[in-house]
Amino acid sequence: MVVVAAGFLMLQQHVVEAKAAAEAEAKAAAEAKAAAEAKAAAEAKAAADVRLKLTGAGMRRAGFSEDIIIRALTKGGRVVAWGGNFYGQCKVPQGLSGVVAIAAGSNHNVALKADGTVVAWGGNFYGQCKVPQGLSGVVAIAVGSDHTVALKLD
Q: Which of 8, 81, 89, 99 is deepest in the core (most CB within 10 A)?
C-alpha cells in the first residue's frame, strides 16, 4: 500500500509539473504573439505614414499674396488636396480611387489610376485637363505649368 501511495504521489507530482510547464509555455507563446502583433501594427503604421507623399506645391501669384496648393496620395490610393482653389484644383473628383500617382501643374492636377487611365481636374485654360478620349495603358504621367503628358507602353 505504501508503494502504491508513493507511486501515486510521484505521478501526481509529474502531472502538476507538466501542467505548470504547459501553462508557462502557453503564457510565453501568448506574450510572443502579442509582441509580434504590436511590432506588425507599428510597422504598418510607419509604412502608412511613409506612403503619404506630398507630391508638390503649385504656386500662383495673386496680387500681393501667394496661394499654395498641396496634393497628397494616401496609401489606399485616395487623393487629398488643400490650399488655394480658385480653379477647382483642390476639388478632387468624387469617387476617384485606385490612384497610383499624381502630378500637379500650376492650376490643375492629374491622377494615374491602377487600371492605366488618367483623370484631370482644375483650370483647363489650354486643354491641360481634357484627357483624350479612349486614353488607356498609361504607365506614367507628368505635368508642366499648363500642359499634361502621359507615357504609354505601346
A: 89
Query: Are 30 and 102 in the same domain?
Result: no
Task: Name the β-bridge partners of 71.
Answer: 56, 81
Domain match, 129 and 69 both: yes
**Is 107 exposed, middle or buried (CB count within 10 Å of its CB: 0-12, 13-18, 19+)?**
buried
Residue 32, pLDDT above cutoff 90: no
Average pLDDT, the chain: 77
Strand partners, 148: 143
